[in-house]
Design a protein that fits this description.
three-stranded antiparallel sheet
Length: 66
């Protein structure tokens, strides 16, 4: 992930994701990404939303799985 890249808002990005989409965030935002994804899953549980969160190097990858 490039250092000069502007920080993306987490919640709006995750809410716009379709099943199979993947987004990357800087590793320093891991806890915020994890908590936000969890909150969205709870709010959208009746619609079946699920996310997978993985780390690779200095990046956190979030994939919408359902």
């Amino acid at each position: 992930m490039k250092k000069e890249e502007k920080k993306k808002m987490i919640a709006p990005v995750l809410k716009k994701m379709n099943v199979g989409d993947t987004e990357e965030f800087d590793f320093s935002r891991f806890e915020s990404v994890r908590i936000t994804a969890s909150r969205i899953q709870v709010a959208k549980r009746l619609e079946g939303w699920k996310f997978s969160i993985n780390t690779k190097g200095e990046a956190v990858r979030v994939t919408r799985t359902a």
